[in-house]
Amino acid sequence: MGALEAVILTIITASTPLLLAAIGELVTERSGVLNLGVEGMMIMGAVCGFAIAYTTGSPLLGVGAGLLGGVGMSLLFAFLTQTLMTSQVATGLSLTLLGLGLSGLIGESFTGLPGIKLNAIDIPFLTDIPFIGPILFGQDILVYFSFALVAIVTYVLFRTRTGLIINAVGGNHHSAHALGYDVVKVRYACIAFGGACSGLAGAYLSLAYTPQWIENMSSGRGWIALALVVFSSWLPRRVLIGAYLFGTVWIMGLYVQAMGVAIPAQLLSSLPYLVTIVALVMISGNKTLTRINTPACIGQPFAPER
Amino acid sequence: MKLILEKRSEQSRAMALLSPLLAIAITVVIGGIIFASLGLDPFKALHVYFVEPVTSLWSIEELIVKAAPLVLIGAGLAICYSANVWNIGAEGQLTIGALFGSAIPVYFTTWQSPLTLVLMLVLGGVGGALFAAIPAALKNRFGANEILTSLMLVYVAQLLLDWLVRGPWRDPKGYNFPQSVPFEGWQLLPLLGEGRVHIGAIFAVIAVIALAIMMGRSLRGFEIRVIGNSPRAGAFAGFDQKRVVWFSFLLSGALAGLAGICEVAGPSGELQPNISPGYGFTAIIVAFLGRLNPIGVLFAGILLAISYLGGEAAQVELGISDKTAQVFQGMLLFFILACDTLILYRVKIVSGRPATAKV
Amino acid sequence: MKRLIGLTAVALAMVLAIGVPHAAEKLKVGFIYVGPIGDHGWSYQHDQGRLAIEKELGDKVETVYVEKVSEGPDAERAIERLARQGAGLIFTTSFGFMNPTLKVAERFPNVKFEHATGFKRSKNVATYNARFYEGRYIIGQAAAKVSKSGVAGYIASFPIPEVVMGINAFILGAQTVNPDFKLKVVWVNSWFDPGKEADAAKVLIGQGADIITQHTDSTAPLQIAGEKGVHGFGQASDMIKFAPKAQLTSIVDNWAPYYVARTKEVLNGTWKSEDTWGGLSAGTVEMAPYANVADDIVKAAKETEAKIRSGALHPFTGPLQKQDGTEFLAAGKVVDDGTLASMNFYVKGVDGKLPQ
User: How far apart are the first and last CA of chain C?
Assistant: First the structure.
């Protein structure tokens, strides 16, 4: 296996959980809700995914469980912020605290057990093509799904009535309400979608990235995903670019070190963050584009006037 | 039957005071049930959790040590969020503040005078403010969203600290271990009392009072609230949004930086790769629990500190795991947030479909 | 008024009574962990030591612990809490707890403290560490024998002496087999980030390493080695379950003998403050059963192990040169513990520059 091929494969693995979680959070935020609990939902996805895959022996069931784990957490968030109208920022952060603790409790009996890897698909002939074979045709389903998700979300948000409703609710919930849309219901759905995606990202960590369960194994990836949504200016294709940009710089830092180049490891480790900031500054120049796509109601609670 | 929240025409004053009590009552009941189901004596458990941290002198002192940075940072963030400016990088500003302030003992190891400490504290604030100026400038100049920039800069700050402590700033007599020279004499904060309480606690109280006055009485406070509510209305009133962004970032950054140098020159007494157990992030919760009101932040900071100390005490005295304590903390926060809803909304139970659905 | 004062005094006494530890017949042994017990690495192994004390000494002792204590301002409080709860012996199991341990020890002169991996002692603070480098020398030798490409990848956490001496011991071991053996080091700036460790392993394998070794805590690198069909070594605990085809052996931290012995000393009243640095011979460092290697390699590894155990071989024996070729140890000399404990240079043969 060539070095370049190895690097590309590693970048794909490193970027996929970020992409999955970020695309879900993008939809949540499009509906006008800021859920800072991505890290908490992700880690719950990881532990649920691992637990079910381990007990049933089926990684696919594990993926499903991870998804549900994320949805469960997100519904708790939705109930608090949408029904009880709590502060979204504080609730999201508390959700992360809760998720980290709860996942540790659930995972206690699963620590130190080797997991079951979600295997890459193998298409005869195609996967065997040198170089492009393993990269294009030798990934696991979640990788393909993450790309499909970008396409689907783009289509739904900009080409369908559902997307119109989501954008309307996020853009101005009072007029959306006046038009007869159930703002709270739409937001519940979008929050749950975000939870599902975060859960999948978590399942990817514990079933594909590093097939095992360890406490805190998400190591802050949920926060990066959150930042990537902002980076994207709420455009799905830019989430894709952002996740892969971050993943690429991240892996290149390790690659350059292994080559023996004498740059402090801390500087290399900080490059993904710096590059993302610089890239954001560069693309923020187009202020109209940013303004059009920023959900105006983000973070604000909605209570219909009576 | 359906549960409906109805917006009150104005905030309920009674509920503003009652809701935290209600939340604590719910937590005590539910927590007691949970502890009992874990096979623990619920009364002892709750005593360890909520009563002990505020009854023994040592616990109270430790409570103050833990709450001081949370309040200091949280008060600044409350102003930021009131202005609708999303600084979530206080942890990074804290780190850079600690670095700036520590430069004095690291480079002038033997310099001992009251001025040493004053300069360290000033540099701490300046460092935090300068670091906060980056997202502020990027937002004002390029329109770059501050949620991303301030968050990403946290990691950069921590890696910079890591590099310095393991490299150029390493104690030459420290056997190449990652720590700076130990601070001494006037490089350390004066202590209040026998324990670890340092004058950082006083700074926190001063900050709370000053910011409460500013928000309630001054034109600047008015400007922040108007811009925060509606930038357009602010513009009509002649307020400058960019100036508010600058002000709130610099203010919250300076307070976070001050908290950073207080941690290093106080409880730590040296620069280490880890200087804060996530104070900058926890302070975000504190700001919102305190309803973005500086006085509220004071109480919220103390409450959160109790939940940390109680969780730790429960590990030692009850043998529950850190994870259980964390879940309990998350639950407590949810109850408080949910009860706060009662300040703005009235709960109504309606039978059948609400009438307004037919609009 | 007098009655009021009296009542207050009674109430105060009651409140205080709750805070004062009961006169304990049992010795309470406290532990402070830097990570979660569930890390299955560093903190997990220390907790295994705690459980060993309970098992061995039964009802003579009682153990308590606080996990996930950050190495910042919170550490001192956590340690003091254990002392206040009546612990007679407290193990603080990470380097960053050094100064907090000393500060608390000053206030509790009757409590015995044990700090892992530090260098400051006092009357009631002892230090202890393990000679993991002995194990690293053995796996270096085995690596050079197993490797076909002659390149190993080393996933390192932070450039502290402990890690640097491990890298050096590994390459010195490897050089006894293949003087041109190459070592690629990647610093991940974390003790514990499974994802990043896995990424580093993949990058290293992509660059031609067919042996993966690590000084980080998770099992992820070894899992990657298994996936990619190369070999590797476990860290802290036996990780064979995670990589049945890839793990050759593992350097196991076994704190149990030391913890049990020190607890007994406190019970007997013979405890002294000292610096203990146990290795293979003390049983603090153990090699997990060898697997996936030819018999002659196992035999050679066991011979080396026996020689180190008996003291016939010290991994750092002169002549040794630093990376830049300057001599730091003359022929026949053995390195002293002080130099080891503060090692901040690579020996000759390591590629790349040590981050300073």
Answer: 68
Pick A101's closest partner by Cβ from B160, B167, B326.
Answer: B326
Which residues of A fall within a CB distance of 8 Å from C198?
13, 209-210
Q: Are A277 and B149 in contact (CB under 8 A)?
A: yes
Residues B299/B290, Cβ–Cβ less than 8 Å = yes
CB contact under 8 A, B272 and C344: no
Q: Which domain holds residue A288?
A: 3-293
Q: Which residues of chain B have pLDDT under 50?
A: 354-359
Instruction: Please check whether residue B95 is in contact with residue B153, taking contact to mean a CB–CB distance below 8 angstroms.
Output: no
Domain ranges of chain B: 64-292
Question: For testing the chain A interface, which of B2, B164, B323, B331 should be mutated: the one with the most A CBs within 10 Å?
Answer: B323
Contact between chains at C241 and A108 (C-beta distance less than 8 A): no
Mean pLDDT, rounded, of chain C: 89
CA C193 to CA C156: how far, in whole Å? Answer: 12
pLDDT on residue B15: 78
Running DSSP on this structure, what letter comes out for residue C62? Answer: E
Instruction: Give me the percent of chain C exceeding a pLDDT of 70.
Output: 93
Kindly determine whether residue C38 and residue A2, on different chains, have CB atoms separated by under 8 Å. no
CA distance C158 to C141: 24
If one counts the domains in chain A, the total is: 1
C304-339 in b/e form (b: 16+ CB < 10 A) is bbeebbeeebbbbeeebeebeeeebbeeeeebeeee
Contact call for residues B263 and B69 (beta carbons, < 8 A): yes
C200 to A258: CB separation less than 8 angstroms, yes or no: yes
Question: A98 to each of A43, A260, B200, B322, how far by Cα in Å?
Answer: 10, 41, 30, 12
Q: Classify residue A303: in a domain, yes or no.
A: no
User: pLDDT by residue (tens digit) across C290-335?
Assistant: 999 999 999 999 999 999 999 999 999 989 999 888 888 988 899 9
Q: Is there a contact between A214 and C38 if contact means CB atoms under 8 Å apart?
A: yes
When CB atoms are compared, the residue of C38, C208, C218 closest to A104 is C38
Q: What's the CA gap between A275 and C197, in Å, rounded?
A: 22
Contacts of B266 in chain C (CB under 8 A): 73
The dihedral built from the CA positions of residue B284, B290, B294 and B295, taken in this order, carries a sign that is negative
pLDDT tens-digit series, residues B311-355: 999 998 888 888 888 888 898 899 988 888 888 787 777 665 544
* Domain presence at residue A209: yes
Does a structural domain hold residue A305?
Answer: no
Q: How far apart are CA A198 and CA C129, in angstroms?
A: 41
In this structure, the strands spanning C320-321 and C327-329 are: antiparallel
Q: CATH 3.40.50.2300 in chain C: give the residue spans.
A: 22-130, 133-252+287-341
pLDDT digits (tens, 9 = 90+) for B191-214: 988 889 999 999 999 999 999 999
A257/C227 Cβ within 8 A: no
User: If one looks up domain C133-252+287-341 in CATH, what number appears?
Assistant: 3.40.50.2300
Question: In the CATH scheme, what architecture does the domain C22-130 have?
Answer: 3-Layer(aba) Sandwich (3.40)
Cα of A50 to nearest chain C Cα, Å: 14
Best of C157, C164, C184, C187 to substitute, by most chain A Cβ atoms within 10 angstroms, is C187
* C192 and A CB contact within 8 Å: yes
Q: What is the CATH number of the domain that holds A206?
A: 1.10.3470
Domain membership of residue A39 (yes or no) is yes
Query: By a Cβ cutoff of 8 Å, what residues of chain B touch chain C?
Result: 47, 52, 55-56, 58, 62, 65-66, 159, 162, 166-167, 175-179, 182, 196, 263, 266-270, 272-278, 309, 312-313, 315-317, 319, 321-323
Give the CA-trace dihedral at C94, C98, C103, C108, to 10 degrees.
60
CB-closest option in B65, B312, B323 to C66: B312
